[in-house]
Amino acid sequence: MIGLKDIADRVYEKKLASQIEYIPKHIAIIQDGNRRYAKEKGIDVALGHRLGAEKTMEVLEWARDIGVKEITLYCFSTENFNRSEGELKDLFNLFMDKANEVLGELNREVAPENRIRIRMVGDRSLLPQDFLSKIEKVEEMTKDFHNYTINLAIAYGGRNEILCAARSILKKVYSGELDADAIDVDTVDDNIYNDISISPVDLIIRTGNEKRTSNFLPWSANGNRSAVYFCAPYWPMFRKIDLLRGIRVYDQRVRELKQSKTRNAQ
Both ends of the chain: CA-CA distance in Å? Predict the structure, then answer.
């Protein structure tokens, strides 16, 4: 049964959607608060992470319906390896379960408009081999899908990403493969993402009432001066209203930039 709150939420969702003219192409999300949510609810941390994973699937559907073309999810940072052995085991079991679900879906007939390209960004050398093999299989099976892209930031750290790119570029210069004077933005792009073409981030959303971007996509987001939306709900409690509010922040920023350009041109 649909309650009054559900009806009110749907009405407000429509109102928010009507206020938005510009839709971001690429949204990056820091899914924060699974552990705190579990603690407040008195449930196991592993269950908190699983509820967060269920929310992720829901949010991906909302974003695609709204018209977003690319989503990057901050699933697991390099700093997260400092967590307990038990929690790490639970997390990677969860990642493996989701990878198996995706592979199961790929083995069934999927309508062209629903085909999703899935890619991983992060330090692959830090990942368990069985999980890495599964992810690479998913990447291979979805590499030709271009309607909608999901980037999974796993074993990811923005500073480490730039450091690795710098090392890669230096090796190419020393070997004579690359002229130092030819280094440009595209060169860094190619060496950061290992030939994965990630579009500039238009909007970062962070849940859990933390007001920082935590070393997330500094090259693609900060370099693009992306809009940022911080919101209070823990990730498992994130609503479509919260997503639309974030997109409204992006919309307002685009409008302001356009108005500024118009004034400067006069």
Answer: 56
